[in-house]
């Protein structure tokens, strides 16, 4: 075993979080590293007394100095190990998502599936992989082979164009990992059709984490005039119209996303005159609408991450408050606000407080009728609460 000499020894008492199954080892917990492991290589993690705890991936540059692969010193971390972990992750999805619900879903959700730094989304017959950490980068080829073997899918695209790679000392990377370059891919979600551009779209191409929330929110949209803010390619808009919304106005800053949204109307046989597409900054568009005296029966707010970490929480909180205040003001009596935050730095509790503050300032009496979260293909390991990032509230005015 060539790895056994590469060792990370923890400071006294710092084995506690490892034993609690939390995968991250911060640099401050490390007493010393022996054997000169390279970036991403496996190291044996030992407590201060020398007791072996399990294997981790070494990240020399990151303040998260290592991420645990397992809590089993006798289990070798090799290609078979990744195949086994990915197989388990796929089987877990089969148990919680009925085949008719979607042909696009997250197969691997990083830490929450015991695979720190690895995200895999399936879009019909194409897989999209994000490799976020030095450890996942080290095993990149083995992971690609395992994915093809386990799913039978021939095309694997990499979308590792994310800022967090910098923290690991890794360059952004996009392109083809296996197979031939795909064009636009058609997916089918809850009976609705969407086109996904996995090479150029946002994230891995589509916001899969909102699938069940698109379904739930649109169930309340029948007969309503809807305003969908931060609409991307029109996910919530298409769902709302398919569920009988009277009209939907959709706002996004991306012209390409709006163009795809319009195309999704045709693809789903929905009347083009029931939809209005507005290119612009939501913060400004909402103010203009308020000044023009426009009103709606349902407002959806699904902004991008304003606060990736807790450090940016305060500024982000102001942004959330602003759009929620404006959104609530545009609602007619009896209206519904569906509001989301995907910021890891904003807790569910804080988000609810922000929305409550917005309602108070808007002078509306409102109640939460349902709290929402990410779909079951984006699970949250109980030992890794950081995995819970998406929170939503359905608020009735
Ligand atoms: N609800 C969408 C996903 C929204 S993602 C779905 O279900 O598919 C967030 C979107 O906000 C992106 O499409 C991005 O282009 C857009 N965006 C980011 N900042 C914006 C701003 N200030 N004004 C308008 N759109 C913005």
Q: What topology does this entry show?
A:
Blueprint: E1 7-10, H1 16-19, E2 24-26, E3 30-34, E4 42-46, E5 52-58, E6 64-68, H2 79-96, E7 104-109, E8 118-123, E9 126-131, H3 134-138, H4 140-151, E10 155-160, H5 164-167, E11 173-178, E12 185-189, E13 192-196, H6 211-218, E14 225-229, H7 235-242, E15 247-252, H8 255-267, E16 275-279, H9 282-291, E17 296-301, H10 313-329, E18 331-341, H11 348-362, E19 367-373, E20 391-396
Parallel strand pairs: 1-4, 9-10, 14-15, 14-17, 15-16, 17-18
Antiparallel strand pairs: 1-3, 2-6, 4-5, 5-6, 7-8, 8-9, 10-11, 12-13, 18-20, 19-20
S-adenosyl-L-homocysteine binds next to helix 7, strand 15 and helix 9.
Brief rundown of the structure:
This protein has 397 residues and is α/β, with parallel strands linked by helices. Helices cover 29% and strands 29% of the residues. It has helices at 16-19, 79-96, 134-138, 140-151, 164-167, 211-218, 235-242, 255-267, 282-291, 313-329, 348-362, and strands at 7-10, 24-26, 30-34, 42-46, 52-58, 64-68, 104-109, 118-123, 126-131, 155-160, 173-178, 185-189, 192-196, 225-229, 247-252, 275-279, 296-301, 331-341, 367-373, 391-396.
């Amino acid at each position: 075993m060539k790895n056994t000499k590469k060792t990370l020894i923890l400071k006294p008492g710092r084995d506690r979080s490892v034993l609690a199954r939390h995968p991250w080892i911060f640099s401050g917990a490390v007493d010393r590293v022996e054997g000169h492991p390279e970036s991403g290589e496996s190291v044996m993690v030992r407590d201060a007394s020398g007791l072996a705890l399990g294997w981790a991936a070494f990240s020399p540059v990151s303040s998260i100095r290592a991420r645990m692969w397992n809590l089993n010193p006798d289990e070798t971390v090799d290609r078979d190990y990744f195949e086994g972990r990915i197989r388990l992750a796929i089987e877990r999805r089969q148990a919680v998502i009925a085949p008719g619900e979607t042909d696009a879903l997250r197969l691997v959700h990083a830490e929450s599936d015991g695979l720190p730094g690895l995200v895999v989304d399936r879009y019909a017959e194409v897989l999209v992989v994000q490799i976020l950490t030095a450890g996942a980068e080290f095993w990149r080829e083995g992971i690609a082979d395992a994915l093809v073997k386990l799913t039978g899918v021939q095309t694997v695209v990499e979308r590792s164009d994310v800022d967090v790679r910098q923290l690991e000392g890794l360059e952004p990377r996009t392109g083809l990992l296996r197979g031939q370059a795909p064009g636009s891919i058609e997916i089918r979600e809850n009976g609705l059709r969407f086109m996904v551009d996995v090479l150029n779209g946002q994230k891995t191409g589509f916001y899969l984490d909102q699938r069940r929330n698109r379904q739930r929110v649109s169930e309340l949209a029948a007969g309503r005039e809807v305003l969908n803010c931060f609409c991307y390619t029109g996910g919530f808009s298409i769902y709302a119209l398919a569920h009988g919304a009277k009209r939907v106005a959709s706002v996004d800053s991306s012209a390409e996303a709006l163009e795809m949204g319009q195309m999704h109307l045709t693809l789903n046989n929905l009347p083009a005159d029931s939809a209005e597409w507005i290119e612009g900054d939501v913060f400004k568009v909402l103010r203009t609408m308020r000044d023009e005296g426009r009103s709606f029966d349902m407002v959806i707010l699904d902004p991008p991450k304003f606060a990736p970490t807790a450090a940016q929480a305060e500024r982000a909180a102001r942004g959330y408050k602003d759009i929620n205040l404006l959104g609530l003001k545009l609602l007619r009596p009896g209206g519904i606000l569906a509001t989301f935050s995907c910021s890891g730095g904003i807790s569910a509790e804080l988000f609810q407080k922000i929305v409550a503050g917005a309602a108070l300032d808007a002078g509306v009496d409102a109640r939460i009728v349902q709290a929402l979260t990410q779909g079951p293909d984006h699970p949250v390991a109980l030992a890794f609460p950081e995995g819970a990032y998406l929170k939503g509230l359905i608020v009735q005015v």
